[in-house]
Amino acid sequence: MITKEQVLHALSHVEEPDLKKDLVTLNMIEDILIEGNHLTFTVILTTPACPLKGFIENACRNAISHFISPDVAVEVKMTSRVTTQKNQPLKNIGNIVVVASGKGGVGKSTVASNIALGLARKGARVGLIDADIYGPSIPIMFGVEDAKPEAKAGPEGKTRIQPIEKYGIKLLSIGFFTDPEQPIPWRGPMASNAVKQLFNDADWGELDYLIVDLPPGTGDIHITLTQNYPVAGAVIVTTPQKVALSDTKKGIGMFMMNAINVPILGIVENMSYFSPAELPDNKYYIFGKGGGKSLAEKFDVPFLGEIPLVQSISEAGDGGEPIILQTDHPIAQAFLQVAERVAQQVAIQNARPASV
Prior knowledge:
Elements: H1 4-11, E1 15-16, E2 21-22, E3 29-35, E4 38-45, H2 53-67, E5 73-80, E6 93-101, H3 108-121, E7 126-130, H4 138-141, E8 151-153, E9 159-161, E10 164-166, E11 169-173, H5 188-200, E12 207-213, H6 220-228, E13 233-238, H7 242-256, E14 264-274, H8 291-299, E15 303-309, H9 311-318, H10 330-351
Parallel strand pairs: 4-5, 6-12, 6-13, 7-11, 7-12, 13-14, 14-15
Antiparallel strand pairs: 1-2, 3-4, 8-9, 10-11
Helix pairs in contact: 1-2, 3-10, 5-6, 7-8
């Protein structure tokens, strides 16, 4: 007769690869059910976007086979409970992730949109804030240029902005509240206050991740956000050429300053190579090669992936349907892997002691 103690002993030999502790110590094993020779238990992952789900499941099966018996019929149920930032004052928002770039024109908003949708595809509850005050492009990418968020009184009597919902995520952009044909000549304090309203005065509901598309460069919005809200980490977007990499170094340096101190979740290299539609297997490194990866190595931060320069990405964004929605497209898979790695790095950061 199999016992619960035997099961826990076996699974205590399965290490969570990112957190470097065993599943039992991490309280990731629940609902152990033993019926004769049939064993069922649930593994609680740190995120539904965990890229190691299959690896962990196989390790659990092997542990039961090795430490108990290869004849046990094992059913492993995989679910998740998204870890949240410590001391998070924003009610119901688990993790704030900013997407930044050292300069404009590197595809930051495209990466932010597809990361948000990728997390939602994996089952997470996701919001997306377009904080790029001077060039809000999220409304175009989601086909909601004409949307006007409503304001409703909440149960506490305060009027709150209702985010626009599209493709399973919640959206707010400064572009919803301004004339798209007119420039926004706001000074720093005005822009910062507008961004804070997107956080404080919106009814986001329950979110696992709130993705924030920051303006390019380093400025008032970045300082306002990082000093007023706890940020789980920053995703840095660059392209391979030297000019972009030089500016990216400054962006990374800003987040690493003592006054800001936001963890770098990793670097995404966009426009890594060009692949023409008629020759999809050909790769032309027109902007250089390997710059993002070498930058990640220099700063000792994760390299989250390469996104090629292909026409279908821009067409999808311009058409209001980000390419990750085309689930069978190879570029969609590349973005999905980036989203999984972002979730993975957030979980690692959340597991670290507060003093680290």
